[in-house]
DNA sequence: ATATATTTCCGAAACGTTTCGGATAAAGGT
DNA sequence: ACCTTTATCCGAAACGTTTCGGAAATATAT
């Protein structure tokens, strides 16, 4: 493995000069610079980022803390799509990604700060953790630059990127109301998720705006899981036959709701309209195709990386960013007279 | 940031002793060891892996070269599932993952060896590259330990994990033949993929075994894309009306084939049976649900990580591993009399 | 000619570890 | 009493960079 010293020896200069030449400083003569570059190429030199990181105290590396990488989360590719977005932005900006795992017990032995400091990452992007995750407190307490995904909390060193979930939910409900629905139930995720909190808020505000009935028993949690959603929906509709539309906080749960409707002999959308959230791939393939709120998930990822890197490089930037949502109308909703 | 020196000072010993205590050597007295551990904890010490990597010439890091992380590949979660498997195995074995990107032009400026050497990764796992990718040659030429996914090539320093694609294809064709199909066409992927080569081989061998017609014009490439598959299938079936079953080298392409059949007014499975490959999530949701060949994708990933780490730690292991496939019968295939 | 500025280079320290080779002291053997 | 082993510790070098402060050589101004 050739080093900067080898180059210095061959080129007949000092390591200082080699370093400065390679890094484009201007206090090295053009001719010697060319010579050094040539030698470096000839010796097939690659810089050692470990050594560099050691002295510069920067690693040009971003730590990724993702909790949705277990077998269970494979159905929706939200996690993956965010990852792709991060990856794309980070790599264009010259940063590498290092993947921390948060679900195996093995890794949980280490604290967030340990994870980051051991690898000397410059900053971190955190996705998929719940409100009560101990990591979250640590993130907010530490001064490691960090971007949260879908958790709208901000400190001096942590920002976030998310969508306007209140607005997204409102779009869904507005759509249902325009179709003439009046008795709208909601299948929410779980208490640990900020997005659940906000989508519920949008749901409530929009109903109130139109002075439609708001009933506590029409709102149930489906844990963001298809099976759970199916069973709670079954119970919900059995006990509240007057419900004519359902707003689900995720498409995966909407799929469960769909199954429940089938079992109950309720036709979607003729007997009951359903709108989901996320616009997962499945949404356009299931039967009927789901009306849903789409998010630019890839962009969430790339914005997160961009935001973090701006923070790292002290470029002025707002510490929070929002990406758009849009209503996608398919066949699971229809007019109700 | 507290270092080993700080600990040494506070504990009143040398850095050598601290290092050896922290790493569990036996030439340090139990009492001083406890003391050092206590001080380390109190000072909230985290080891600097950069420094360690520099002197040990090992980073406990695995490089990940993945090509399926662009916007286009989101439909099938094969890539992601492999990633999850790798992540799980690697993290239990104490390795971190660093993500290299191979599709942005930015990263393509660097060669495979540069990528690996700069970050001083101990080894690499490579996924989704084509037979003619220049990286592949480099991987085989270099002596960096590497595991290829779905590319059955082996050298002193590179192994692979894959499924028996010949066998998988045979299972599919056997199923169709047992159902009474005789005129079986194939929608393959593209020439750049080993899996295509092998699935074709399985298809041909099985047909030959039963002395069924093998026609070159019944075999077309769908580029592993839904749209391409739809158009080639359309053309194929229009020109060869006698075809009564289709073997698709991926579920995504099977979905395309499904659409083509719809447009042609051919009912699946009554007019024509279709079997896919991969068992993607969509396969069980589309209409009709797809009969397909399932792979334990998660396991492909975890085996890859396990294999690589065995190689890195000089544990004896076969350089190639196979994971199982199984036929999953759903509603896109039926008897043909 | 001298004084000053500019260009081009370099020595050495620093980053935080690990590890080789040996030192010291205590324990054991004869 | 002396020699040998064992347990415990440490100094210093090494890993491959970057960078501070300054030196030498050359150009420019007076």
Descriptive account of the structure:
The structure is a homodimer of 337-residue chains. Chain A has 337 residues and is α/β, with parallel strands linked by helices. Chain A folds into three domains: 44 residues, lambda repressor-like DNA-binding domains (434 Repressor (Amino-terminal Domain), Orthogonal Bundle), CATH 1.10.260.40; 130 residues, Response regulator (Rossmann fold); 131 residues, Rossmann fold. The first copy, chain A, has 13 helices and twelve strands. In chain A, the strands form two sheets. Chain A has a six-stranded parallel β-sheet with strand order 2-1-3-4-5-11, covered by helices on one side. A six-stranded mixed β-sheet of chain A has the order 7-6-8-9-10-12, sandwiched between helices. In chain A, helix 5 links the parallel strand 1 and strand 2. Chain A is elongated, with a radius of gyration of 26 Å. The termini of chain A are far apart. The model of chain A has no long low-confidence stretch (mean pLDDT 93). Chains A and B meet through helix 4, helix 5, strand 2 and helix 7 of A and helix 4, helix 5, strand 2 and helix 7 of B. The structure holds a DNA duplex (30 and 30 nucleotides).
